[in-house]
Amino acid sequence: MLKKLTLVSLLAGGLAVSAAQAQEHGHDVKTPTRQSWSFAGPFGTFDTAQLQRGFQVFREVCSNCHSMNRLAFRNLAEEGGPEFSEAQVKALAAEYKVTDGPNDEGKMFERPARPSDHWPATYPNPEAARAALGAAPPDMSLLAKARSYSRGFPMFLLDAVIQYQEHGVDYIYSLMNGYSKSDDPNWNDYFPGNHIGMAKPLSDGQVEYTDGSPKTVQQYARDVAAFLMWAAEPHLEQRKKTGLRVMLFLILLSSLLYFTKKKVWANVAH
Amino acid sequence: MSGPSTYVPKSAIGRWFESRLPIMGLVHSSFVAYPTPKNLNYFWTFGGILSLMLGVQIITGIVLVMHYTPHVDYAFNSVESIMRDVNWGWLLRYTHANGASMFFIAVYIHMLRGLYYGSYKAPREVLWILGVIIYLLMMATGFMGYVLPWGQMSFWGATVITNLFSAIPLVGDSITTWLWGGYSVDNPTLNRFFSLHYLLPFMIAGVVVLHVWALHVVGQNNPTGVEAKNIERDTVPFTPYATTKDAFAMSLFMMFFAWFVFYVPNFLGHPDNYTPANPMVTPAHIVPEWYYLPFYAILRAVPSKLGGVIAMFSAIIVLVFLPWLDTSRVRSANYRPAYKVFFWLFVIACIGLGYLGSQPPEGGYTIAARIFAVYYFAFFLIIMPVLGLFEKTKPLPASVADDVLAKSAAHAKV
């Protein structure tokens, strides 16, 4: 009886749901495909060279319009990131000007940036960006965690088990490769509604890599997506490393507690 | 069913203190000598797990508050600075955010265990109602906590939920304005939510004390639902038996918890909450945290706003009347073959409602949500009272000890 009733209720619910899902589809938005990333999985770590390349793409292309307010220059030298040297970061920061003050005369002034400064935005505020570009581009600091795509039932549940957390990165990667119509620079296969305000930002050969990596849109997209993941989660490596230690400790503790419990209960029927 | 307190302090200082404040005797009788039925299964470890989770949430929460700024202009930034610049801040925040979900997972298992084994039935009505009060306080705390990071889902979730009160006839709008502290969700709303989010966990802790007190007066139910009567034959002392078992279960639960914190910390959150709150941009789908989704689905399954709000709150309030809605003389579903079926259908309905609450309220989703919502209420209001009168139950064991002996004899034969 249980089985029959369960089956009937599941069927009723399932039919209604699949009818609703069928209604939702029927336009041209593609679902991003899952990519393989060095930072995925329980032992994942960032590929330093990839983050450095991704930073180069961000700096030379993305940062012309997008801000990255939560990134400080010093972060670029920190462990578990692009790991530029302190000297490199100092020199890099000095190339940028930031507003400081007020000084003793009560005036704001410009000075070269220091490693402790945050990444200076091209536009002073979203309104200025909107006035210049037609729409305000989102700040990139958290983009890799603020974007996602639906995996549907039952994959969205299994994602917790297989530790799939890179939806946002995969979406960004796909988006960069989704400009499929040469006659429409604002058409994107993956953007909701297919019309994206940002015209195709990357093209082959645009960024001069110095480590021999291919100068293709695909490679740029992959590198910048990885960089954005680090920017959104700068302590990802520390988190996974700590997780391993915590898990090993808990496995040991649980085993000891199991045998303790077994010994305590050995003489009691239960 | 308190056992005799056999506690005599060993030291002279201990005896001196005990005769003035017998707190060690209280601890001893509650957590050492307290008799627990021999036949409890691992579903009975969730009470301990819940106490642990409350402790984790309060401790991580207190430290987070040291770094958090409750202001619309700084809240999001302060949370991000916890994630980036505070030493181990990411661990604190991910533990606290996922801890809320773990708390609810544990409480749902704890509640369903009570529902399955009839733990709400006499003489445990007050114990059960105190539990419902804790659950209500948890819902309020969780909701207000989700607003504090001031992301898009924080803001719009708060807007949707507080707007529900505007459905109340005549005074609805005034109540909503009063809740907001203004004419929309804004800085005063954030401030009061922060204040209450800090207060409510301590109220929960207070009600937990009452809950445990009530439990220690009436004693624990057990999988047979037959009252443990003979302390010698039916029960074992809490320490070391229940303490070691609880500790083992807690350690396993911590592993489950750690999996989320360290490996999939954003699985239970919503990506939109990594975008700062913007009153000018409404997200495509506003969804609350997963643990409210069944109730959110019930809310949206009813075509009228006021009706939906009434249905949603009734879905929780109905739990209070459960001890009197269930007319069966037998507690445990193990001896109630028909109830067992309806119970599992109820679990399916709740999970179904949870899924539908996360989907847009249209077409087939709404129809499915209505079917499940009707079953949800029918389970409490029709099946529970009627089934108890007609159901043919299986014969109960004479005592806990008899059940244990029969089981171990069967086990020995195999």
What would your notes on this structure say?
The complex is a heterodimer of chains A (270) and B (414). Chain A is 44% helix and 3% strand. Chain A is mainly α and 270 residues long. A two-stranded antiparallel sheet of chain A has the order 1-2. Chain B is mostly helical and 414 residues long. Chain B has helices at residues 12-18, 23-31, 46-65, 75-84, 89-117, 125-147, 152-163, 172-180, 187-218, 231-234, 238-263, 293-301, 305-317, 322-325, 337-357, 363-390, 400-413; strands spanning 35-37, 235-237. The longest helix of chain B is centred in the middle third of the chain and has 32 residues, at 187-218. The two termini of chain B are 35 Å apart.
Helix content of chain B: 55-70%
Instruction: Kindly report the CATH topology of the largest domain in chain A.
Output: Cytochrome Bc1 Complex, Chain D, domain 2
The CATH class assignment of chain B is: Mainly Alpha
Q: What is the spatial order of strands in the main beta sheet of chain A?
A: 1-2
Number of domains of chain A: 2
Backbone shape of chain A: globular
Integer average pLDDT of chain A: 91
What's the CATH first level of the largest domain in chain A?
Mainly Alpha
Number of helices of chain B: 17
| DSSP summary: helix tally of chain A | 9
Unreliable parts of chain A? 10-26
Q: What fraction of the residues of chain B are assigned to beta strands by DSSP?
A: under 5%
Q: From the helix content, strand content and strand pairing of chain B, which structural class follows?
A: mainly alpha
Major sheet details of chain B? 2 strands, antiparallel
**Assigned CATH architecture of the largest domain in chain A:** Orthogonal Bundle
Number of domains of chain B: 1
CATH architecture of chain B: Up-down Bundle
Helix share bin of chain A? 40-55%
- Could you tell me the CATH topology label of chain B: Cytochrome Bc1 Complex, Chain C
